[in-house]
């Protein structure tokens, strides 16, 4: 899962609930200061087990360059509620949510960015109707299903989540799955932190990741996890829209091998950026370089 480097919103941003025709969504929005030139609006869609907080470190540099930026929690994700029904999280439903969010922003064609699972959902939204979008950035998201090795891990997670009861005991069930995940991938040892401030920041972020996990609706994770394991290759469809596309990734990626992302970008005729010293979440791991890459693309389309 993405690990945001910071959790404090910059002065240009606020947290609120965006009212749409398809429900209310928790968002972070940053806007340029009064009198500053406006260059456009961007909607940022997070990945599997992620949230709007994964983009906090991008808000200041993007808004400082003149962009209104809105990062969203999808339905059933972190601070956005959702039903206890897997059908509510079909990819077509989540794509319609993206369209509703854009309509509620009421700010012309937007630059759409989807990270990981969010890239697949955002692609579905563009294929549904490309008109509301000025460009599409695919961040650490591939042409089809995730790698076989990750499918095995994800299948185990889905099996564990499927055992959570549909009524009482849901939070305790999510807590049990969290503890099992921590046993497989232990958190950083705070005792190894040499700097007291760094140790405190690590503790705060780790506690946030725990809260965020408990805020997810299990049915959402099950449904979207299955999408990650079964997504078809829709590169040719996306290329056919003529949408300006930017493919961003780190230098390594466990979900989709980087050479696969290179080939996807070539098939799309897309701009391609590899962020140095980043892996699956360049937005969180190298936010300054990622923001520069986004601005270089957005400023040309």
TrEMBL record:
<protein>
    <submittedName>
        <fullName>Alpha/beta hydrolase</fullName>
    </submittedName>
</protein>
<dbReference type="InterPro" id="IPR050266">
    <property type="entry name" value="AB_hydrolase_sf"/>
</dbReference>
<dbReference type="Pfam" id="PF12697">
    <property type="entry name" value="Abhydrolase_6"/>
</dbReference>
<feature type="domain" description="AB hydrolase-1">
    <location>
        <begin position="43"/>
        <end position="293"/>
    </location>
</feature>
<dbReference type="GO" id="GO:0016787">
    <property type="term" value="F:hydrolase activity"/>
</dbReference>
<keyword id="KW-0378">Hydrolase</keyword>
<dbReference type="InterPro" id="IPR029058">
    <property type="entry name" value="AB_hydrolase_fold"/>
</dbReference>
<dbReference type="InterPro" id="IPR000073">
    <property type="entry name" value="AB_hydrolase_1"/>
</dbReference>
């Amino acid at each position: 899962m993405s690990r945001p480097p910071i959790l404090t919103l910059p002065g240009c941003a606020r947290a609120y609930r965006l009212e749409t025709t398809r429900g209310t969504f928790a968002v972070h929005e940053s806007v340029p200061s009064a009198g500053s030139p406006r260059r456009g609006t961007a909607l940022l869609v997070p990945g599997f087990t992620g949230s709007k907080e994964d983009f906090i470190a991008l808000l200041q540099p993007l808004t400082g360059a003149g962009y209104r930026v809105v990062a969203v929690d999808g339905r059933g994700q972190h601070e956005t509620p959702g039903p206890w029904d897997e059908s509510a999280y079909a990819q077509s439903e989540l794509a319609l949510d993206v369209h509703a969010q854009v309509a509620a922003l009421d700010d012309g064609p937007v630059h759409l960015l989807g990270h990981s699972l969010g890239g697949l959902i955002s692609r579905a939204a563009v294929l549904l109707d490309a008109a509301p979008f000025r460009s599409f950035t695919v961040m650490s998201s591939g042409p089809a299903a995730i790698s076989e090795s990750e499918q095995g891990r994800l299948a185990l997670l889905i099996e564990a989540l499927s055992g959570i009861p549909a009524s009482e005991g849901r939070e305790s069930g999510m807590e049990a799955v969290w503890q099992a995940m921590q046993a497989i991938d232990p958190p950083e040892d705070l005792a190894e932190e040499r700097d007291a401030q760094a140790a405190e920041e690590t503790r705060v972020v780790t506690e946030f990741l725990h809260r965020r996990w408990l805020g997810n609706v299990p049915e959402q994770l099950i449904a979207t996890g299955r999408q990650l394991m079964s997504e078809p290759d829709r590169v040719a469809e996306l290329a056919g829209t003529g949408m300006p596309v930017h493919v961003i990734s780190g230098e390594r990626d466990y979900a989709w091998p980087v050479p696969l992302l290179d080939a996807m970008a070539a098939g799309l005729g897309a701009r391609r950026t590899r962020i140095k010293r980043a892996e699956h979440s360049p937005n969180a791991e190298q936010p300054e370089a990622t923001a520069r890459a986004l601005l270089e693309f957005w400023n040309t389309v």
